[in-house]
Amino acid sequence: MLTGKQKRFLRSQAHHLNPIFQVGKGGVNENMVRQISDTLEARELIKVSILQNCDEDRDTVAEQLSKGSQAELVQVIGNTIVLYKESKENKQIKLP
């Protein structure tokens, strides 16, 4: 689990990132979770945006994505989810 200080740090790191994935009408599926896992391994910190036509609410989507990819949910703000997962091979972010 991340501490409040670590989450604040990650939020500041994620501020300038653009969302890489979009969750739309289809909701969350296995393929998306797999791609997000792979991307997290490469980047550690990503944003996912939830489109207007998504049937599920944003907290449900955030929970499904973080559980499915074994990532930490850093924040849900508006329709954007920030996820973090420590990389095994490409460690770039040093947590406080």
Descriptors:
Translation Initiation Factor IF3, alpha+beta, single chain, 96 residues, 3 helices
Topology:
Blueprint: H1 4-14, E1 21-23, H2 30-43, E2 45-50, H3 58-68, E3 72-77, E4 80-84
Parallel strand pairs: 1-2
Antiparallel strand pairs: 2-4, 3-4
Report on the structure:
This protein is an alpha+beta fold and 96 residues long. The protein has a single domain, classed as YhbY-like (Translation Initiation Factor IF3). Strands 1-2-4-3 form a 4-stranded mixed beta sheet, with helices on both faces. Strand 1, helix 2 and strand 2 form a beta-alpha-beta unit. The two termini are 13 Å apart.
Q: Short description, anyone?
A:
By secondary structure, the protein is α+β, with helices and mostly antiparallel strands.
Strand pairing plus helix content: what structural class? alpha+beta
User: What is the CATH top level name?
Assistant: Alpha Beta
The strand count comes to 4
CATH-wise, what's the superfamily?
A: YhbY-like
* Largest sheet: number of strands, sense, barrel closure: 4 strands, mixed
Quick check: average pLDDT? Answer: 94
* Portion in beta strands: 15-25%
The CATH level-2 architecture is identified as: 2-Layer Sandwich
Q: What separation lies between the terminal Cα atoms?
A: 13 Å
CATH topology: Translation Initiation Factor IF3
What is the 3D shape? globular
Helix content: 25-40%
Number of helices: 3
